[in-house]
Model the fold of this input.
Amino acid sequence: MDLNFDGKVVQITGAGSGFGRAAAMKFRDAGAKLVLSDINKKGLEETIALLDLDESRAIARPCDVSNPDEVAKMTTAGIDHFGALDIAVNNAGVAHGLMRTCDISLRDFDHIMAINVRGVFLCMQQELQQMTAQGQGVIVNVASVAGLIGAPFLTAYAASKHAVVGLTKSAALEYARKNIRINAICPASCYTPMVDQVLQGDKGEKREQDIANNIPMGRLGTADEIANGMLWLCSDQNSFTTGQALAFDGGMTAT
Ligand SMILES: NC(=O)c1ccc[n+]([C@@H]2O[C@H](COP(=O)([O-])OP(=O)(O)OC[C@H]3O[C@@H](n4cnc5c(N)ncnc54)[C@H](O)[C@@H]3O)[C@@H](O)[C@H]2O)c1
Done:
């Protein structure tokens, strides 16, 4: 299957690391023009350096997705520069350490919700205005298997990812007749800096084995496997899919 994004304008949040960076590399290889953002300026600069593209193909705008002004500026900058917004990957997100529900502080809960839920909501609002005006667009929101099933010791994270699935399905129904497709991807644990953090420490190896044992394929995924799924979901070859929360999870949610 030829996934060609020649000339398409693709905006990716959280592009300074993990899935966002992997997606940026694959969209570059498929010919897209890139609007990349991240709250982490250093990570964003590293991604831009890796891409090795000039401003005719990629721009970087630091942005905190929980801040409405910054989200509006980032989206406007891309539209002003490239003249359109064809595809948006709302990927920026944070997790919290493993702990029981009673031990999660209100501060941490609000922080997770502000980035994972409010961030996706704010990005979608900006993207949908432009896509409606253009008469076409594709959005992929990055949820998690923790948006489909319960995730013990990750309650706030799981609640935020269930909310991303709710935002995705509801908006998809609203915009289905406006030629805008909106889907979510729901990965199981993959090797990215987010999960590396969880695996750090003397229990890391055991934890990694525990996570792998919980996945029917017996292993964690990779950022490349998730980025491949993002491109496939966004491509014109996948023109009849909207409102779905698709698991990329080595079989985890099939059990
Ligand atoms: N890695 C996994 O196993 C896994 C599984 C399921 C879902 N996810 C989701 O995938 C997405 C990407 O995660 P990842 O694994 O690549 O993690 P990562 O930590 O490697 O990358 C996340 C990026 O988001 C950025 N970010 C954090 N807060 C931000 C904010 N307020 N505004 C803008 N950017 C911000 C970070 O700086 C970072 O560059 C997240 O939404 C995460 O919840 C990850």
Remarks:
- The two ends are 29 Å apart (CA to CA).
- The pocket of nicotinamide-adenine-dinucleotide is lined by residues 13-14, 16-20, 38-40, 43, 63-66, 91-95, 115, 119, 142, 144, 187, 189-190, 192-195 (CB under 6 Å).
- The chain has one domain: 9-188+223-248.
- Residues 9-188+223-248 form a domain with the Rossmann fold fold (CATH 3.40.50.720).
